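DM from R.C. (forwarded with permission)

"hey, sorry to bug you on a friday — could you get me a structure for this? deadline for the figure draft is monday and I only need the backbone to look sensible"
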Amino acid sequence: MKKKVALLLSCALTLSLALSACGGNDNPPAGSAQPSASAGEPGVVKTELVAGVDSLSTSIDPMLANFSNTTSVANHIYNTLVKYDLNNEIVGDMASNWSRPDDTTWEFTIQDGYKFHNGDDVTMEDVVFSVERCKDIPQAVQYVTGVTSVTAEGNKLIVKTETRNNKLIHDFTNIVITSQKAVTEAGDNWGQIAVGSGPYKVASFIPSNEVVLERWDEHPTLKPALSKITVRAIGDASSKYMGIEKGDLDFVDKINAGDIGRADANDKLTTIKVPSLGIFFMAVNASVAPFDNAKVREALQYTIDREALISLGSGIDAVANTMLSPALPSYNQDVKAPGLDLEKAKDMLTEAGYPDGFDTTLWIYNDSQKTYAELTQALLKEIGVNVTIEQLEFGKFLDSLDKGEHMMLFGKQTASPYAISSLEMYYGDQNFGGGGNFGFYTNDEANALIAQGLAAMDEAEEIACAKKIQEVVAQDNPYYPISNTVDCRVVVNNLKGCEFFSNSTFSFLNAYFE
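My reply, with the result:
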């Protein structure tokens, strides 16, 4: 009988609900021998996996493209100092332990034995460099905000901050350890030739299209069963699903409602539904006219048909009211997004000085977003706003977003389990563009509350700050939260040991074929 894993999002969801799937935890012993794959040969265990995802970036460096698919691939290539486990607890990766000697100091003890894929030893200079370089990367500067110095003493990394900074340990789950030599030699091409120290190395990379990983057997602790992992970008959700149904793919993500039903009925496939901390949203560029007008932004809130948009996608998401998941204790349940009311939206546009509406553009970055954009276009036309839909290749989307060239866009971002850090990403004025603040939005009160929450002495103060931030920004409307996402993946039945996290990332480090 086919196995189905269905976990539905609710306010009672706890953060421990990250799912280890593809058959559960019945993994073979680490380092166990697996026969080489040979298609169609009886008795031979397959060791090469092909995955289909909705998009890939032009860069393979997650510091340059901090999106879930890029991060998922990168987690096979790189080590970090610390990471989240399936229960959203922080555990060591390259760091064996860490401590906080005082309010403005963090110390990490780094393990020996790691090598980069080019054969060089990982040194403390590389570790220091990996943290320091974030200061020069707009998409990654948020991870080192407030850091005043990064030094090494023996095998200890010592990080000093301006003030008490509770989020640093969470931010460091995102910083990959890279080779200073390789980055320097590659120059502007670094994002294309990633050299990490993880259990897989890059065999080939076609920006925005495909990345191929090969197992690297010199990793000191992890010995994966899969010898090769190919990840392909397939923007059309139906085409992607057909790939796994025909046997061309072993794994697909983000499928639509109709295909979920087909997968559920297919006894060769397993559907896996994991509530995530992700938010699907529309954003406007609040730094340019007409969206620098708060009344215009508010008017648009009454043109969002959230339930209809959800039905056009997977159909299993929950309506979102803020940019945080109801799973988090910091979620403010008193903040409610308004319902569809085109007459009110039209009146508010008139009040804002746009009685006849205006012309604008709406960006999307894959085929699956077209129906969302077309529905939004039709609703906005009813209030006189003429929308031109522009579909950008994902790398171009990211580059142009960083430059603030957008007017409106659809996007998805995944919150950190540490909610105040996510609110800083969405609303912090140092994170414009790919750093996370898609709305190019700034609010002095929100920024002060973010700073207070990051330095809070206890969880109650931190939660209070987060809830107040949600109230403040709800008055300004730089974002239009649409849904709290439930990640739906489909795998072939004989693929076991995959891991799926509430931050919408996935891992094949413990995966194997029966």
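R.C.: lifesaver. The longest strand covers residues 269-284.
me: no worries. The radius of gyration is 23 Å.
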